[in-house]
Design a protein that fits this description.
The complex is a heterodimer of chains A (116) and B (299).
Chain A: H1 3-13, H2 16-25, E1 29-30, H3 31-41, H4 50-62, E2 66-70, E3 80-84, H5 86-109
Antiparallel strand pairs in A: 1-3, 2-3
Chain B: H1 4-12, H2 20-42, H3 47-58, H4 61-70, H5 83-89, H6 95-119, H7 127-149, H8 161-185, H9 192-213, H10 221-227, H11 234-237, H12 239-266, H13 270-292
Classes of the chains: A mainly alpha (116), B mainly alpha (299).
């Protein structure tokens, strides 16, 4: 892993809660689907570990930002599905707003030129 | 359906206090692992490896339980060599096996010893008695091999009885065949002894090759886990090649046997050995080609 990757992973991990909320905004998912969505978006590298995700679900549920229910699969174990709550949506929106503002400040401080 | 994952999950949760919280997490993890294993298998990874990979990716489940379990987990972390695992995996010595092995060995040494003395003319034995002694000795070697292989050891599960018997039979035929050859060499037997000797040895080589080529390494779980990290054997990843090798071997030795018969009755029996050596060399070449030859482009 290069220095760049390590930095990006760190940065990403700091936003795990918001990322999971964002995935759940698109619909109810169970653990592996959430993990897969994040993994595919990061290009297949495990930037966010499964262990981190389980801790995240637990924390989000405790804070009332998501709620869970068991699916009715008959084979291979029942899946625990997560669904975002209204409180979750509002936290998601404020986190996104904070990120956009922060990104703008960092971009300007780091003197990043727009690449478009 | 891959059932390995359920066993591995149980092992991962061994020693964890089964609070309702932990139980719920375990069920959640189970469904996710099943999905991950299915994904790995769909990409062509063998089931056992897929299950192992998925559980390794998961990491230590105690970390998953996090803060909630910190207070509830006063147990020392279970090492893989814990008392419980030791008791579960211990292989008990079997006195009956030791006694059997000693008896086989005594019979083996006595029978072959007497047969050798007879063949050298030091004991007045007829051909019939010689053959009986050889048969007895060969049976003892065969039983020695078969019985040993069907024992469980600390690193291997026992071989199934059928397969162990196959090895026993192959050993018996090889030993008997060599015995006939020895008798013929010592001049105690006519030329037809050489043909029988060749038949026994060739049949034994064919059977050994077949057994070895179809042998799967059913070792203990932890040995398989460590092997899972090493590149697979050609025959394991490509059973077609193994089957092809089996057929080639049979053909090579049928031809070898015919050549031995022809050589024995035309040029002299010692030349029969040459055909045997040739057949063996060709088989090894085929084996090398099958194991290390260029690979087919995978479709």
């Amino acid at each position: 892993m290069t220095q760049d990757d390590a930095f990006a992973a760190d940065l990403l991990r700091g936003h795990t809660d918001t990322i999971v909320l964002s995935v759940l905004r698109r619909g109810e998912r169970y653990g592996f689907e959430i993990y897969k969505t994040i993994r595919d978006a990061t290009g297949g590298d495990h930037e966010i570990k499964e262990a981190t995700l389980y801790a995240t679900y637990r924390r989000l549920e405790k804070d009332g930002l998501v709620e869970s229910y068991w699916g009715d699969e008959t084979q291979g174990g029942r899946r625990k599905y997560y669904r975002i709550t209204d409180a979750g949506r509002s936290v998601y929106r404020s986190n996104v707003a904070a990120w956009v503002a922060t990104r703008r400040i960092i971009d300007s401080l780091l003197d990043v030129k727009e690449q478009q | 359906m891959n059932t390995d994952i359920h066993r591995l999950l149980d092992e991962a949760f061994a020693g964890v206090d089964m609070t309702p919280d932990a139980q719920e997490l375990k069920e959640e993890v189970r469904a996710n692992l099943v999905a991950r294993v299915a994904e790995l298998e769909a990409s062509g990874i063998p089931p056992a490896v897929a299950a192992q990979t998925a559980i390794t990716e998961l990491g230590d489940v105690r970390a998953l339980l996090g803060e909630a379990a910190d207070a509830a987990a006063p147990h020392a972390p279970a090492s893989p060599w814990s008392q419980e695992a030791f008791a579960r995996h211990r292989v008990r010595p079997k006195p009956a096996f030791v006694v059997r092995i000693v008896v086989y060995s005594v019979v083996l040494v006595a029978a072959f010893g007497l047969a050798a003395l007879g063949a050298l003319g030091l004991l007045p034995l007829g051909v019939g008695a010689e053959l009986t002694l050889l048969g007895l000795g060969s049976t003892a070697v065969g039983l020695l091999v078969g019985d040993s292989l069907s024992q469980e050891t600390t690193t291997n599960h026992p071989l199934p009885i059928g397969r162990a018997s196959g090895f026993a039979l192959a050993t018996f035929m090889g030993a008997y065949g060599l015995g006939f050859g020895g008798l013929a060499a010592a001049g105690a037997m006519d030329l037809w002894g050489v043909v029988l000797a060749a038949l026994g040895v060739v049949a034994s080589i064919v059977l050994f090759s077949f057994l070895a080529a179809t042998q799967t390494n059913r070792k203990k779980a932890w040995v398989r886990q460590s092997i899972a990290g090493t590149p697979p054997n050609r025959f394991e990843e490509d059973p077609e090649t193994a089957a092809r090798f089996g057929i080639y071997t049979a053909v090579i030795f049928i031809i070898t046997f015919a050549a031995i018969a022809v050589l024995v009755f035309t040029v002299g029996w010692l030349w029969g050995l040459l055909a045997l050596v040739g057949g063996f060399a060709v088989m090894l070449l085929v084996l090398a080609r099958m194991l290390f030859g260029p690979r087919k482009p995978s479709s």
